[in-house]
Design goal:
This protein is an alpha+beta fold. The chain is built from four helices and 15 strands. The structure holds 2-amino-4-trifluoromethylsulfanyl-butyric acid and cobalt (II) ion.
């Protein structure tokens, strides 16, 4: 069942999602050659606590950290470590915050210093695909209109969308129904209604869409070792169209 949020529930959701947006902006400023993903994680946790929230991912199915930090061929769920970022890397940072019982969730991919042309294009296309999907999040459309718009944009650029992981409903839980795939036929799936809140999160690979999970049980990497990018926003569907809760 897809939970329809009331005006007051939506008001509650704005807070954790605002913190997520601000923290991602702070992370963007910290990302540079030499920094470790563990340092980013420590700063992220302190930021969330100072703002009166709690990290949403820490402890979720045993996940050990505040952020997911996925470098280059890592798609999602990279665990922060003592690895130093290097010039030319790209890093996806995904994070969630819970406040007063409501969740916020978003991700961005950042360039570490100067990166190659293909990586730049991969990031641009992934972010643009996210916004193509968001545009479809209007009452009366169907869920897979979002999925289809993402897929079309990505594949037209010559990249591929990850199938094994999807976006999701969000609210009093990090993951609610429905699942929001980044691929699929248009005009199908449940009708979108005012008051639905979803996290749309394209994961886009330079090469094959196929992925595998590393032995740590979390880190998802591309099967061919080529790079991947990830952008995510939490949005709520209003009568006027999508309201992006994780944008500054
Ligand atoms: N944005 C991802 C998601 O919504 C991150 C979850 S990572 C986990 O699924 F650590 F919480 F599992
Ligand atoms: Co998510």
């Amino acid at each position: 069942m897809i939970i329809i949020k009331s005006e007051s529930e939506i008001a509650h959701m704005r807070k954790p999602n605002r913190v997520v947006a601000e923290l991602l902006d702070y992370m963007r400023k910290l990302v540079r050659p030499g920094v470790t993903t563990k340092e980013l994680d420590t700063k992220a946790e302190a930021f969330i606590i100072k703002r009166g929230g709690k990290p949403a991912f820490k402890g979720y199915h045993g996940y050990p950290a505040t952020i997911c930090a996925s470098i280059n061929e890592e798609v999602v769920h990279g665990i922060p470590s003592n690895r130093h970022l290097r010039e030319g890397d790209i890093i996806g940072i995904d994070l969630g915050v819970v406040m007063d019982g409501f969740y916020g969730d978003a991700a961005r991919t950042f360039a570490v210093g100067k990166v190659d042309e293909t990586s730049l294009k991969l990031m641009e296309v992934t972010e643009a695909a996210l916004y193509k999907g968001i545009e479809q999040a209007v009452p009366g459309n169907r869920l897979y209109d979002i999925s289809h718009a993402v897929q079309e944009h990505v594949e037209a650029a010559g990249f591929s969308v990850v199938r094994d992981f999807v976006g999701h409903g969000i609210g009093r839980q990090l993951h609610e129904e429905p699942q929001v795939p980044n691929y699929g036929p248009p005009h199908q799936g449940p009708k979108l209604e005012e008051g639905m809140a979803i996290a749309i999160e394209p994961m886009v690979n330079e090469g094959t869409w196929q992925v595998k999970v590393l032995k740590d049980g979390w880190t998802v990497v591309t099967a061919d070792g080529k790079r991947s990018a990830h952008f995510e926003n939490t949005i709520v569907i209003t009568e006027n169209g999508p309201e992006i809760l994780t944008r500054l």
